[in-house]
């Protein structure tokens, strides 16, 4: 459960009683389980991200092959 804090001379202190609306708090202390850094993805969002990563890898591979081909041709001349 989040904890609403206020700034005092001695540092941060919990507000008593705790408010029900945490948007009015200056500081909110949360546990690690309450913080969602990565919200859950839908299947379509996951597929889109996977395809974007795959396209980047394919482009990198194509540039690598092209670079090796050009290097071979410049050495033969």
Major pleated sheet? 3 strands, antiparallel
Q: Which residues form runs of ≥5 with pLDDT under 50? A: none
What would you call the structural class?
Answer: alpha+beta
In terms of DSSP E residues, the strand content is 15-25%
How far apart are the termini? Answer: 71 Å
Helical fraction equals 40-55%
Provide mean pLDDT, rounded: 85
- Shape field: elongated
Report the radius of gyration as a whole number of Å: 27 Å
Structure, explained:
- The protein is an alpha+beta fold and 77 residues long.
- The chain has two domains: 1-36, no CATH class; 38-77.
- Helix content is 44%, strand content 17%.
- Strands 2-1-3 form a three-stranded antiparallel sheet, with no helix packed on it.
Which characteristics define this entry?
1 helix, 17% strand, alpha+beta, 77 residues, elongated
Chain-wise SSE layout:
Layout: E1 3-8, E2 11-14, E3 27-29, H1 43-76
Antiparallel strand pairs: 1-2, 1-3
Q: Summed up, what is this model?
A:
By secondary structure, the chain is an alpha+beta fold. It has two domains: 1-36, no CATH class; 38-77.
């Amino acid at each position: 459960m989040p904890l609403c804090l206020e700034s005092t001379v001695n540092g941060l202190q919990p507000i008593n009683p705790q408010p029900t609306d945490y948007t009015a708090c200056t500081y909110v202390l949360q546990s690690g389980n309450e913080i969602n850094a990565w919200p859950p993805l839908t299947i379509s969002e996951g597929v889109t991200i996977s395809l974007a990563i795959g396209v980047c890898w394919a482009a990198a591979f194509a540039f690598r092959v092209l670079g090796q081909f050009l290097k071979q041709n410049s050495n033969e001349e």
